[in-house]
Write a structure and sequence with these properties.
alpha+beta
Length: 341
């Protein structure tokens, strides 16, 4: 079972008692015989075009496995700092290992100077993280806590199930975009994705003074992100009018959002929506402060050797020209990570 800090709690109210983002069932996309594949795929694309974020239901990932991932994540972050630092994140190219509070500053900045200005203005992010990549990358092996075979086995199982779900989602998007259903399959064969365990420690009531946040305003870099969040809340997304809305935890859902490279692929048709983690709406019962928040982000990326450019049919004529030059997936991810660490 997950520890008490991340165990089920009353769900946060959503705006007007209704979810602020679309809710889409994965069931038709998981059943090749479903008559609703086309309509579900179109709904998925529409959500990406309008909000860039949505909730997924009917996940094929077992709830018991997710609970184990949460519990093992909490156990890892409870280790002494020296043990965690022994597994320290090293380079943007590897993108594996432990990052203590203050090491990374997520930002909209594209360079170290731009991110440094965000650090000095808004302060450090109030989080720590642990990154896991594909297991068969001989040049950049994962780092694992010594003597914890359970941690390694569970995380690799979860990584693989998320990788398979990524393929299902990209197949749906291909159908909605009028492409061959396997179009994106050739771009995600290696599974150059990243599983990130996140811990936002408990903080006193004054921790969010002067604009401090748990994670700064940013967009994600790859194709899509699968986000599993506990019941604490704090995630916000930015609407096109600049208003921020809460992405309230809804039990049994995955939050799905589009990243920069998917937006480039679609020539801007799909939104890579900016988001942040701010002061949560729930305080600790009877205490003047905020409890820890745990989340699990699975960042889905095109393979690092692939070139990303606007898809046919997304530019020309009344659609306008290409908005971006073609770019190598791996190089773009390293550029963004180099600026934030």
């Amino acid at each position: 079972m997950a520890p008490s800090a991340i165990s089920p709690a009353p769900l946060l109210e959503t705006k007007g008692n209704e979810p602020t983002l679309p809710i889409i069932s994965l069931a038709p996309l998981l059943d090749s015989n479903s008559l609703a594949i086309q309509s579900t795929a179109i709904s998925l694309l529409s959500a990406f075009e309008t909000s860039g974020f949505l909730y997924l239901t009917d996940s094929p990932i077992p709830a018991e496995l997710l609970s184990r991932v949460y519990a093992l994540s909490a156990r890892f972050f409870a280790r002494p700092l020296a043990e965690k630092d022994a597994l320290a994140w090293t380079t943007p190219t590897a993108n594996r290992g432990y990052s203590k509070q203050g090491h990374e500053k997520v930002s909209l900045g594209m360079s170290k100077d731009e991110v440094a200005r965000d650090r000095s203005g808004a302060g450090e992010d109030q989080k720590e993280s642990f990154e896991i990549g594909r297991h068969n990358d001989v040049d950049h092996p994962n780092q694992w806590p010594q003597g914890d075979d359970e941690f390694k086995g569970v995380m690799l199982d979860f990584f693989e199930r998320c990788r398979q779900l990524h393929a299902v989602i990209m197949k749906g998007l291909a159908i909605a975009l009028g492409l061959d259903s396997e179009f994106f399959g050739g771009y995600i064969k290696q599974g150059d994705n990243a599983l990130r365990l996140l811990h936002y420690p408990s903080v006193p009531a004054g921790a969010f003074a002067n604009g401090r946040v748990r994670a700064g305003l940013h967009s994600d870099y790859g194709s899509v992100t699968l986000l599993f969040q506990d019941s604490r809340g704090g995630l916000q997304v930015e609407r096109q009018n600049g208003e921020f809305v809460d992405v309230a935890p809804i039990e049994g859902t995955i939050v799905l959002n589009a990243g920069d490279l998917l937006s480039r692929w679609s020539n801007g048709r799909i939104r890579s929506t900016r988001h942040r983690v701010v002061e949560p709406p729930l305080k600790m019962d009877g205490q003047d402060g905020y409890p820890p928040r745990y989340s699990i982000a699975y960042f889905c990326n095109p393979d690092s050797d692939k070139t990303i450019e606007a898809l046919p049919g997304t530019y020309g004529g009344d659609k306008g020209p290409k908005k971006w030059e073609s770019i190598n997936s791996g190089e773009y991810l390293v550029q963004r990570l180099s600026a934030t660490y």
